[in-house]
Design a protein that fits this description.
Elements lengths: L8 E11 L3 H12 L6 E7 L7 H5 L9 E7 L6 H9 L4 E6 L5 E2 L4 H11 L3 E10 L19 E5 H9 L8 E5 H7 L10 H7 L8 H7 L3 E12 L6 H4 L1 H20 L7 H14 L7 H6 L4 H30 L11
């Protein structure tokens, strides 16, 4: 195997698993990677200071390691938070391709890695493979894929501008099953500021850590995206998962999303679809503009005139929504059920 100019191993897949507690889920995640038909694979498990070390889980897989399959485990001395912990794992990844795998998820399709590498190897302008997923203990699918998309052997190659339109505003929704061209991602600096809310920004703004999968936007801007129709992954839903148990995330997710999408919209992006990606990102930022009437956010942007204008727009929008609500309540008092919602057949 030869290395790239950036020191990456050309055909290796790096799987980065940020973990905290939940040893049963971590064991399932690791087993699903072991069962992938593709090799070589390196797995990097970043334990974010779990009260009880997760190392015994890793030891259970020691007999499965060989020259083409390696597992590395490290435990943070203190809890860093979901993004900083993930990035500490990404910093150690040496593969040409990278798979982010939250420890409560697992792959259910043994061929996803092999198919993804094959597609990106054949199509030099494809830097992201994106798969459908199913939620744990449910028949609900992560993606609502439009009928207009044509698939061949379960895959469709979409222009980045078309994919990102469907991804955020076209009703397709989002999934956690993906493989990135890690070399391209590093060249675009997708894992760092200003495209993520890391620990430093989190503390500065009083909001949760997250990246809102910003790398999906940035990689879509430089080329094609391969979309897999079938579910290749199961999304775990334990009560202790980050989005369910983290109060800061629940309370501040609107601000988190505004900051990330706004930063994408004003960044100097490269790629043939950069303009379309920035446009969609700005529309997404506007969707969360109601959440940004916050002096800390204004200070973060040095009280930029555009931010002050958006904050004013936020106030007007909130006032308009309140007026509409009061109007509907008043009408319903005079004419009951005038605005009653009806179910569609």
């Amino acid at each position: 195997m030869k290395g790239t100019a950036m020191g990456l191993i050309e055909n290796r897949v790096s799987v980065v698993i940020p973990a905290y507690n939940q040893p049963t889920y971590l064991r399932r995640a690791l087993q699903s990677v072991v069962e992938q038909t593709y090799r070589p694979i390196e797995v990097i498990v970043a334990d974010d200071g779990s009260p009880t070390s997760l190392e015994p889980v890793i030891e259970d897989f020691a007999s499965m390691e060989d020259e083409h399959f390696k597992i590395r485990y490290f435990r943070q001395a203190q809890n860093l938070g979901v993004i900083d912990n993930f990035h500490s794992g990404v910093a150690q990844a040496k593969g040409k391709y990278l798979v982010p795998l939250p420890h409560d998820n697992r792959f259910t399709d043994r061929g996803f890695f092999a198919e993804s590498v094959k597609i990106m190897s054949r199509h030099s302008d494809c830097h992201l493979c994106y798969g459908n997923a199913r939620y744990e203990n449910s028949h609900r699918m992560a993606l609502s894929i439009p009928d207009m998309i044509q698939f061949r052997d379960g895959w469709s190659l979409l222009e980045g501008k078309n994919f990102i339109q469907l991804y955020r505003r076209g009703g397709m929704d989002w999934s956690q099953a993906m493989m990135l061209d890690h070399e391209m991602a590093l060249s675009l600096r997708v894992y760092g500021e200003p495209f993520v809310v890391n620990g430093a920004i989190s503390r500065r703004l009083g909001i949760a850590q997250d990246d809102v999968f910003s790398y999906v936007f940035l990689l879509s801007g430089v080329g094609a995206v391969a979309l897999c129709e079938k579910p290749v992954c199961e999304i775990g839903t334990p009560p202790e998962s980050y989005s369910r148990s983290n109060r800061s995330w629940k309370d501040t997710k609107g601000k988190v999303k505004f900051v990330i999408f706004y930063n994408i919209s004003r960044a100097d992006l490269k790629g043939k679809y950069a303009f379309q990606v920035k446009k969609i990102a700005f529309k997404q930022a506007l969707y969360y503009v109601d959440c940004i009437f916050d002096s800390r956010i204004a200070q973060y942007y040095n009280w930029r005139p555009e931010i002050i204008l958006l904050m004013g727009f936020s106030l007007l929008r909130k006032s308009w929504i309140s007026i509409k609500y009061l109007f509907k309540r008043g009408v319903n008092v005079v004419r009951p059920n005038t605005f009653k919602k009806t179910k569609r057949n």
